[in-house]
Design a protein that fits this description.
Elements lengths: L7 E5 L20 E3 L5 E3 H11 L4 E6 L4 H9 L12 H14 L2 E5 L6 H6 L2 H4 L4 E4 L3 E5 L5 H12 L2 E9 L7 E9 L3 E9 L3 H7 L9 E11 L2 H11 L11 H11 L1 E5 L2 E5 L3 H10 L2
Helix pairs in contact: 2-3, 8-9
Length: about 290
């Protein structure tokens, strides 16, 4: 097992954004704007990067399509044009420098062919190397209920348990069609769970039979919140699926691989003290725009 400090975060951002078509025909979903607590209009990916930095992450790899490298490079590494910069307020001129400072911590990685979320994570293998890492969804933003950010919460749990950690939230059974779900045994009630199964988008019937966790309401389940700390063994699990061409719904998924990782090394679940905001679907994005700030 790895006891290294988690320094790196991976953010897959190479999807097509089909659920937000036709807007995503011209704007990547990770670049959709939200209004943050500081009142600034930010692309979603910037809020995710700031979440990682708030947790003490020092290096961030963003996985994108090859044709999108320039877009993400321009956001984080290039200053505004000489025509635009003088028109910015002094505060935004200062913020422009802040973006470039963030950019020094960011590496743009590529997924040559879009073959699923698990495949996108695998594309970060050579960059991550033999380290544990924070994995973040490219279309979710987070708001902690405490002074400790959501990402920092799960990093703290990793440092306690020294094994992969999946962040969790409680969902009603009517929402299971859109989420990964876990089963397990509480180590600390309503906080820390020894995970005994990870299952992608279960039917209500399957969840009732196999995924109910003791102490929870009959119609509530523990679902993936959208943040993970993973050991580098995940890349071996992903490589096995890719080499054997084991696909789910035509793609290489992450969730089935997570269950393999759990079987090999164990896995801890953590019920995050905070809220996850989805920006990847029209109605969810609209509600995020209302609630996030």
């Amino acid at each position: 097992m790895h006891k290294d400090k988690v320094r790196k975060a991976v953010i897959p951002a190479a999807g097509f954004g089909t659920r937000l078509f036709p807007a995503t025909k011209v704007v990547k979903k990770e670049l959709f704007p939200i209004i943050d607590r500081d009142g600034k209009a930010k692309p979603v990916i910037l809020a995710i990067v700031e979440e990682a930095i708030s947790a003490g992450i020092t290096e961030i790899g963003i996985v994108v399509q090859p044709d999108d490298v320039e877009i993400f490079t321009n956001l984080f590494k290039n200053p505004p044009s000489t025509e635009l910069f003088p028109k910015l307020s002094p505060q935004n001129q200062e913020y422009s420098q802040y973006l470039q400072d963030l950019g020094s911590k960011i590496v743009i990685l590529t997924q040559e062919k879009q073959e699923g979320y698990g495949h996108a994570v695998f594309c970060a293998k050579d960059w991550v190397q033999n380290e544990p890492f924070l994995l973040m969804l490219g279309d979710h933003v987070y708001r902690s209920d405490t002074e400790i950010s959501c990402s920092r919460q799960i990093l703290d749990i990793y440092e306690q348990v020294n094994q992969s950690v999946v962040s969790l939230t409680i969902m009603p059974e009517t929402m299971l069609y859109k989420a990964g779900c876990v089963q397990g045994v509480w180590q600390d009630l309503n906080s820390i769970l020894t995970v005994t199964q990870v299952y992608e988008k279960p039917s209500i019937e399957y969840a009732r039979q196999h995924l109910h966790v003791e102490g929870m309401a009959e119609n509530e389940f523990l679902c993936v919140f959208g943040l993970y700390v993973l050991t580098p063994r995940i890349f071996d699990c992903l490589a096995e699926n890719i080499n054997k061409n084991l696909r789910d719904r035509g793609e290489f998924q992450l969730t089935t691989t997570l269950d393999n990782l759990r079987q090999q090394q164990g896995m801890t679940g953590y019920l995050v003290k905070g809220k996850c905001f989805d920006t990847g679907m029209p109605d969810a994005y609209r509600q995020t725009m209302i609630d996030f700030r």
